[in-house]
Amino acid sequence: MIEMNKIIKQFLSQVSEKNQNEPEFMQAVTEVAETVIPYIVTQDIYYGQNILLRMVEPERVVSFRVAWIDDKEEIQVNRGYRIEMNSAIGPYKGGLRFHPSVNLSILKFLAFEQVFKNALTTLPMGGGKGGSDFDPKGKSDTEVMRFCQSFMTELFRHIGPNKDIPAGDIGVGGREIGYLFGQYKRLKNEFSGVLTGKGMSWGGSLIRPEATGYGVVYFINEMLKNKGRSMKGKKVIISGSGNVAQYATEKCIDMEAKVLTLSDSSGFIYDKDGIDSEKLHYIMELKNEKRVRISEYTRKYPKAEFHPNKSPWNIKCDVAIPCATQNELDKEDAISLIKNGCNTVGEGANMPCTPDAVEQFIKNNVLYAPGKASNAGGVAVSGLEMAQNSLRYTWTRDVVDGKLKEIMSDIHTSCVKYGSSKDEINYVKGANIAGFVKVADAMLAQGVV
Length: 449
Ligand code: NDP
Prior knowledge:
CATH class of the domain at 211-365: Alpha Beta
Bound molecules: NADPH dihydro-nicotinamide-adenine-dinucleotide phosphate
Order of helices and strands: HHHEEEHEHEHHEHEEHHEEHEHEHHHH
Number of helices: 16
Strand order of the largest sheet: 9-8-7-6-10-11-12
Distance between the termini: 33 Å
Structural class: alpha/beta
Largest sheet: 7 strands, mixed
Number of strands: 12
Oligomer: single chain
Strand content: 5-15%
CATH architecture of the domain at 211-365: 3-Layer(aba) Sandwich
Shape: globular
CATH topology of the domain at 211-365: Rossmann fold
CATH superfamily of the domain at 211-365: NAD(P)-binding Rossmann-like Domain
Radius of gyration: 21 Å
């Protein structure tokens, strides 16, 4: 045990030396190293091949200037990035994030996680991530369009339908994907499946907008099913009110669970009566069309409470689904959730729980699903969108939803395969080892490249 800790520590200090001032990236690498290195040392084919050391080094990092003109005719400058992390099992695939907090560390952590997540889906997709410190909030549609056009004017030379296929993430939804796609098409003079999350009339897939949110609830349901339980009647708290949170809420309502909270960066709403379909529809209107703060909800539904500048983790529930952003749920939040009876946590966001929050969940036998497993539904349906683009064909809603369910169930099975010990399933260990094995096998077969 002491020897193993020493090996892990040595590996992490080697990685950290090369990646100074990248705390989010190191956090993601640490979580993987702690579960995967003990596995590697027991496997002759992987041991001594420095596979993990190769996996933490991006194949390529692109950083570029994005200059654009705002509505007051002033010149603005943002920074754009694309991290092409690993292409062992397929072309780079992963979203674009537009948020003022975006930096190299955050995108590298997301790209690293994406490699494992994409491998878990069983589809042939490598891992990447990109974005910009541009903030779409408060910008007019034409400003967002001009920014997207400028961003794509550089990015287009690095991506392609068989090379690197970006999608949405925080701050990048259907509107942004449309502007990005339009500019790519104009520059390349070709109509191809270079982005996913496209509109239905121009190459999109049914269920793609819903996929991450639906997928996380399907995954949670698999964990509960494994314990002889189900989502029916469960009290659920959800953070965020964007794409993932909205469709996680929709699927919870479908499965007869009661969603009590949603949030944004200004605070959270608590509706004791539960957020039903009609109320969710109103939230979608507030967030997707009017683009206003979530507190507006309490004007229409005055029985609900708004808690400014707070997260929902002290509300009593059975299931918690963090769907906003990284490190939004810390140790104290985890303790409060456990104290209030929460026994199941499924991550909709990427790395929303801090490492000491995860430690609390595992120590207290909370069913805990890491994002790379539970939120893989989005990229899985992106993979299905790519397949439909190649076929020049569109599958029905039921076909795509059926495939999504099957993929989430297969990911659950892989986590159980690699994460089970005597009487418990460690989903973190299961997801990390299952993802590692698939990528590592391909890397070994392809030689030292
Ligand atoms: P959206 O931009 O649609 O929504 C993000 C939500 O999170 C908003 O409610 C936003 O509030 C809130 N939020 C963002 N940053 C912060 C912050 N720093 N503090 C508090 N709240 C914050 O993004 P998505 O729903 O697409 O993504 C949410 C999470 O899910 C991210 O971690 C993303 O990486 C992950 N994810 C998304 C996938 C997808 O398919 N979209 C796939 C897999 C993972 P506000 O509006 O106030 O900023």
